[in-house]
Amino acid sequence: MDAVALSPAHGFSKPTQPRIRLIAGLGVEGDAHCGVTVKHRSRVARDPTQPNLRQLHLIHAELFEELAASGFRVAPGALGENVTTRGLDLLGLPRGARLRLGPDAVVEVIGLRNPCHQLDGFQQGLMAATLDRDAEGRLVRKAGVMAVVLAAGEVAPGDAIVVELPPGPHLRLEPV
Q: Is 20 exposed, middle or buried (0-12, 13-18, 19+ CB in 10 A)?
């Protein structure tokens, strides 16, 4: 794991931290998106009783390198993610994959982060840069994955991430 981040206030970016604590069923302790029910403001406005399927946001550091090659400057935490990974194909994981973060924490990957217009408010053109098309012409969302916390624990940069795949057949990740 390259970096961890949280912010107690709703905003776009999250400052990186030396460590964060994941709480089962809630998310990142002290983060604005921590809770049993949805905390993203646009989703709260629609239905505040929805379950929080976006307790933890993970992005692969390779995305930052790809964006840098296109002239964007993006650092860990800048896109609102809690965990920045390296060397892990987050976008290729199936729904229900479990990630062991550090010695104790376990999260379940629920779906893809759907890039939104706020990316363009951070840096003009960034939303389009986080979208692509695959060989079949399907939209590819590259802004990371969302997960729920199954087992609590502290996680820090340098901690290992172990992937546990669910039994097949595997389901593709869809936006959540």
A: buried
Q: Is 55 inside a domain boundary?
A: yes
How many distinct structural domains can be found in the chain?
1
Q: What is the CATH number of the domain that holds 88?
A: 2.40.33.20
Residues whose CB falls within 8 Å of the CB of residue 64, separated by 6 or more in sequence, listed in order: 74, 75, 76, 84
pTM score = 0.95
The dihedral sign for the CA sequence 56, 60, 65, 66: negative
Q: pLDDT tens for residues 110-140?
A: 999 988 888 999 999 999 999 999 999 999 9
Residue corresponding to tokens 């992937």: 163
d(CA 112, CA 21): 22
